[in-house]
Structure formats: C-alpha cells, structure tokens
Amino acid sequence: MSWSDPAFSGLLAAGYLGLLTILWAALVAGVGRWGRAWRLEPHQPQPARWPRLSICVPARDEAGRIGLCVRAALASDYPDLEVVVVDDRSSDATRQEALDAAGSDERFLLVDGVEPKVGWAGKPWACARAAGEATGELLLFVDADVELAPWAARATVARLLNQRLALLSLFSDWRLESFWEAVVIPVVGWFVRGAVDLDAVNDRGQPDAFANGQFILVERTAYERVGGHGAVRAEVLEDVRLARAFKSYALPSGLLHAPGAFRVRLYRGLTEIVSGYTKNLYEGMGRNAVVAFGAILFIFVGTLLPYLALAAALLVRIVLGWEVVGWGWIAWVALLCSLITGFRYRLERLDGRSGAHAFSHLLGNLVFVGILLRSLFSVEVEWKGRSFVDGKADVAE
Asked: Which ranges in the chain belong to alpha helices (H)?
C-alpha cells in the first residue's frame, strides 16, 4: 500500500477522524466533572475564630471598574475586614471613583501609589504597597475588576483555616459584555483551566503550583516568609510565580473552582483582549517555543481543521457538484464538528450562560491562534503604559 493508494488515504482519514471523535466525545462527557473534587461552596464549617482580613486591590486606570469592586468588597459578610486600594498613579478617575464607592466606610483605605523601584513590575509593587499598609492577619489580593459575592471572603477564609493552608486561590466567573469578550475569553480561559492539574496543585507532596491573580488569599506570616511580592517583583505572571514560591517553601497551597464567588471583566473588547493575552500567554507556557507551537498545532488540527474540512467538502459537493468526497465522510466530519460545538455549549452552560456562543467556537479559536502567534513573537509588550521584555518588567524604564 503506497501513499498514492486511495485505500491508504482513506485509512489515514479514518484514523484521524476516529481519534478526534473519541477525544471530543470524552471531553463532552467529562465537562460536568471538571473541578468537582475541588469546588468551593458558599457554606463552609465555621472556624474557631475569624482573623482580621485585608482585601488588597492594586488599581491602575480602572475607572468604570474599581467602584463595583470596592462596593462588592465592602458588602462582604466577613465579620472583620478592611479594604485597601492602591491607586497606582492612574491617569483616569480611578481614585475618585474608589472614594465615592467607599463613602464614609471606615473600613476603607486608599493609598496613593508611587513610582515602582527599578526592577519591579507595577502590579507586584502595588500589591506589596497594599500589604504594607494592611493590618490583617490574612491578605486577600483581588484585581480591580473583580466583584466579590458577599459570601466569597468568608467561605474562602474558612476553607483556608480548616485545611490549614497558607495560600488559597480561586477560579470563578467571567463577566462578558461585548461580542468579542463572549467569543474569545471562554476559549482562552478554559484552555488555561484545562491545562491546570487541580489534583497535583492541591497535593502538598507535588511541586505543581498555580494561582489565579484575580483572587489570592494568603496567611500573612507565610507571605512574609517567602518574601511577599518582592519574590516575584519583576514578573508578568506574578500570581503563578507567587504560588510556586509558596510551594518551594513547602507551604500548603490550594486552587479551587468557586462558581458564583466573584465575577471579573478581564478585558473590554477585542483590542484589550489581544493586548492582555499577548502579555500573558507565552509567559504562561514557560516561554517554551515547542509548547507554544504544539498548542497552536493542537488547536489547528483538533479544532479548526474539522470545521474547515466540512466547509470545503460541502462546497465541493453542493456548490461545485464534484463527487470526490462521499456523503459518509461528510456526515462523519459533521458529527465531529457537532461534538466540538457541543463541548463549547456545555462549557457555556457550566458557566451559567445560554450557550448561544457555542456557534462562535471556530471564530474564537481563530483569534486564539492569532494571539498565541503574536505572544510567541513579541519580545517586548506594553500594558497600561509599562513595558515588559521577555516576561519581566523593563528595568531600563
């Protein structure tokens, strides 16, 4: 049997389609089981006492977001908390919006930011400033676009104390308002979540570590022991690096899926999506070109190619009238595409959305591949007026 033999070509096609059919059927069936063993529920056993909690919020040019964040944090049902916002020299109305949201609440503290020291990225610097001003035994770092549910702080603190953890981070919900947010962010977000082995990350005996910078709760003495954000001062992915620092000190850490604990609007529109993920994606792959190209190849062969093959086959048979592709093959490819779309639909439903954007999965993955390529070949990136070179703060600033 040779390469030119039609039977050999058919065998290759059948092998390709069969493998992908099994893979996507398994993924569709397994969606509901993701993170089930590592889920945070609102009601947790009450600890012996509630330590003072400081919710620390670094904020740079977050007008339109920071008000929602501050109001939600102050509405938490945690018995003893303060909210510390560091206005990282914003050029917009971030400072005033934060003050207006807090009103006369004495639990709120606004810290005016100063220029980071040489070698520090902006966010780690602002987090370190917040920690330095905070008075809590526990520190909860949240992004300025995070809206906490009233129960989130209490339930997370209870879980951390009951399991004697030093760090506990959460995955929760995205707030998707524009078309491009709804199309692209779930594709990239679930790619990242799917790449995280929750069993290994939550195993104290394993070196695997991961934290989601949108929500990281730490015990202060442990945080200071690893050097705080000073240990990750120049990093773009300061959240993941901080989790690794905790694990390297044998400090028990955890990562949970907590539906409803908070909502976050990561980016506003396509331009911010591309810029934001360009900054993070390649760094998150350890700046390993083999891993990055492998991810691109996987997305193309496993997700994009079936849709493209189905479109081409239908064009050839229906529009051009050529009978080079049998209807049986077309039906098989259509089944595979329906499984891929069904997988996206189940993810949408798992996140509490209608599922309508399942049909934009092809478009979302095309954008995702473009962002991956851009991230791979971008040596220097800029975010909120600051430059990063090879995943670290530009110390020449």
From this structure: 6-30, 66-74, 94-102, 122-133, 152-162, 179-195, 198-201, 220-225, 238-248, 269-284, 289-299, 305-314, 327-350, 361-377
Residue 383 has pLDDT above 90, yes or no: no
pLDDT average, residue stretch 192-203: 94
pTM score of the predicted model: 0.90
**Sheet of 392-393: strands edge to edge?**
380-383, 386-389, 392-393
Q: Are 111 and 131 spatial neighbours (Cβ–Cβ below 8 Å)?
A: no
Domain shared by 206 and 315, yes or no: no
Pick the last residue of a domain from 247, 281, 315.
Answer: 281
Instruction: Check pLDDT > 90 for residue 33.
Output: no
pLDDT in tens, 317-369: 776 666 666 788 889 999 999 999 999 999 999 999 999 999 999 999 999 99
Contacts of residue 344, Cβ cutoff 8 Å, sequence gap at least 6: 186, 357, 358, 361
Are 13 and 44 members of one domain?
no
- 3-class SS at 374? helix
200-250 pLDDT, tens digit each: 999 999 999 999 999 999 999 999 999 999 999 988 889 999 999 999 999
Q: Are 105 and 73 within 8 A, CB to CB? A: no
